[in-house]
Amino acid sequence: MGIGMTLCLALSLVHVLLVFLHVAPSNQISQRYSKQISAWVYPLFEQNWRLFAPDPESVTRQISVRTMRTSTGGTPEVSDWFDLSAVDDSAVKHNVVPSHTTQNMLRRGWTAYLEAYGTDDQPHSERAVMLQKYLRNIAVQRVAAHRPGTFEAVQLRVITRQIAAPPAAGTPRPNASTPPVDTRYLPWWKVEPNGN
Question: Distance (Å, rounded) from C-alpha 110 to C-alpha 8?
């Protein structure tokens, strides 16, 4: 057996063990190594049971990004908003077998950020800082793929619209009303020259 195959097998076994410890009931090993287990599992290998009991979305979110760069004269130049959600929607719309990543990366990144930060945009844990970097990197990669040029910082805007509940069976459909809209602007996040 070659060294590459041995390494691949070892990495697979470590992965299975760490994911098992993450989803297993709390025990001495998972408590003692919880920091290392979480570092491996989040955000790429997070486990949840929504496949078996999905929570239907009660809101729709439009996530947009804009960039800022300093001009040669030293003044900041801010771009127009670029709709990241629309890019994801168009990638899914006419694709018979859309990837899980295309459908969920941005949405799940925002949901995790919201759970970690709440409403104040101040990190209260290492995981919160990691989620901020994760969301920022998604925005940077997607903007760079669709807009030429360099930039030094990005800002996200999230517009949340409530989805009206369906009417009860046998009752008349109520007149369409405009659902409540909430707009949140995140702080400017600096983009390092290496993209991180």
Answer: 32
The rounded distance, in Å, linking the Cα atoms of 98 and 46 is 20
Question: Given CA atoms 127, 128, 129, 134 in this order, what sign does their dihedral have?
Answer: positive
In this structure, are residues 134 and 195 in contact, taking their beta carbons and an 8 Å threshold?
no
Task: For residue 139, name the pLDDT band (cuts at 50, 70, 90).
Answer: very high
DSSP 150: -
At 12-70, the pLDDT tens digits run: 999 999 888 888 888 898 889 888 888 888 877 776 665 555 566 778 899 999 999 99
Q: Quick one: DSSP state of residue 29?
A: H
Residue 171 CA to residue 190 CA, distance in Å, equals 52
Q: What pLDDT is attached to residue 175? A: 61
- What is the DSSP annotation of 42-56? TTTS----TTTS---
Domain coordinates of the chain in residue numbers? Answer: 3-41, 59-166+177-190
* Cβ atoms of residues 155 and 187 within 8 Å: yes
Distance between start and end Cα atoms, the chain: 37
C-alpha–C-alpha distance, residues 103 and 100, integer Å: 5
Tell me the whole-structure pTM to 2 decimals.
Answer: 0.66
Phi-psi region at 67: left, alpha or beta (left = phi > 0; alpha = psi -120 to 50): beta
